[in-house]
């Protein structure tokens, strides 16, 4: 299955979700629409709403309710992107200037709030208390993950355990909420709902591990962001944590100093150190392990093209270069 094939099996639903997103972006305040349309039109992979559509479809549930849920998830994700770019002072996302670099921090935060609020209006329309419980809890955990990450900026003593807690919150939680809420909405059995919850969690962790790996093994043109961004912000991600723990004393000292200082003056030396210490291979192995465990969770689903697409999506998530 080609990378785009896992979109193809739900192509009509995907287009319908895009229509819902456009419709829900309307506001009588022009700047809200302008910024909202700018960030939504940037596209991206839209893996989270895709996960909603595939999870529900794999259970034989394909209707407007599922499409609405997919749009809700994308609105939540987009609101967090607007906020994250302000927090990280990012100037580039998906190869384009960020909203905060074009319009400033205040409008970006406020439009993020608008999208977040709109997602909850749409959730009320969905009228499913179990789904609302899953998504409202997820939004809290995501916020906690972001704050935990912020508290560890330039903290070279951050452990792998804490790092995993950060990525489980800030990234994996929305993947988990996507597959879990779709399962609940589709009336899945308790076993299926739990398996899809775990699937989303494991896939989200694998996805973020690869993201953090690519910060040291990618290029800006392919990634749509600057290589070394995490290091510049003083974020102690797994490749750095592993190098400090398992590398030579010289490699560990180099990385520790870079984290504490922030900036990318020593980027070339850091890239050499994380490669030589085996940190990138370790991160890639961990990502593959989580992906394999995610695929095993899908055994409880009916054998159909949507389940196959979820397997291929998981493999793509760890094999990707951007």
From TrEMBL:
Cofactor(s) essential for the protein: Mg(2+)
Assigned EC number: 2.5.1.-
GO terms assigned for molecular function: transferase activity
First-tier enzyme category under EC: transferase
InterPro entries linked to this entry: Isoprenoid_synthase_dom_sf (IPR008949), Polyprenyl_synt (IPR000092), Polyprenyl_synt_CS (IPR033749)
Source superkingdom: Bacteria
Gene3D superfamilies associated with the record: Farnesyl Diphosphate Synthase (1.10.600.10)
SUPFAM superfamilies named among the record's database cross-references: Terpenoid synthases
Keywords: Magnesium, Metal-binding, Transferase
Family assignment from sequence similarity: Belongs to the FPP/GGPP synthase family.
Protein name as catalogued: Polyprenyl synthetase family protein
Source species of the chain: Azotobacter bryophylli
């Amino acid at each position: 299955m080609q990378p785009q094939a896992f979109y193809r099996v739900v192509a009509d639903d995907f287009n319908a979700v895009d229509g819902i997103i456009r419709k829900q972006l309307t506001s009588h305040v022009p700047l809200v629409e302008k910024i909202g349309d700018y960030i939504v039109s940037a596209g991206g992979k839209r893996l989270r709403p895709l996960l909603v559509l595939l999870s529900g479809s794999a259970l034989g549930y394909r209707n407007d309710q599922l499409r609405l849920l997919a749009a809700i998830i994308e609105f939540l994700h987009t609101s967090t992107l607007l906020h994250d770019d302000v927090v990280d002072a990012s100037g580039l996302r998906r190869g384009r200037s960020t909203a905060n670099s074009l319009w400033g921090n205040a409008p970006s935060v406020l439009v993020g709030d608008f999208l977040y609020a709109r997602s909850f209006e749409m959730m009320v329309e969905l009228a499913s208390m179990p789904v609302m419980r899953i998504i409202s809890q997820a939004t809290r955990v995501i916020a906690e993950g972001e704050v935990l990450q912020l508290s560890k900026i330039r903290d070279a003593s951050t452990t792998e355990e804490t790092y995993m807690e950060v990525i489980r919150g800030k990234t994996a939680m929305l993947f988990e909420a996507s597959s879990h809420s779709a399962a609940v909405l589709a009336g899945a059995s308790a076993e299926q709902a739990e398996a899809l919850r775990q699937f989303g969690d494991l896939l989200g962790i694998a996805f973020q591990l690869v993201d953090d790996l690519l910060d040291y093994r990618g290029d800006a043109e392919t990634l749509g962001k600057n290589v070394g961004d995490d290091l510049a912000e003083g974020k102690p991600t797994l490749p750095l944590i592993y190098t400090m723990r398992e590398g030579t004393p010289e490699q560990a000292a180099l990385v520790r100093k870079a984290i504490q200082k922030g900036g990318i003056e020593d980027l070339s030396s850091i890239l050499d150190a994380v490669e030589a210490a085996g940190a990138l291979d370790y991160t890639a192995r961990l990502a593959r392990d989580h992906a394999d465990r995610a695929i095993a969770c899908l055994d409880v689903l009916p054998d159909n093209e949507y389940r196959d697409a979820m397997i291929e999506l998981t493999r793509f998530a760890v094999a990707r270069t951007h």
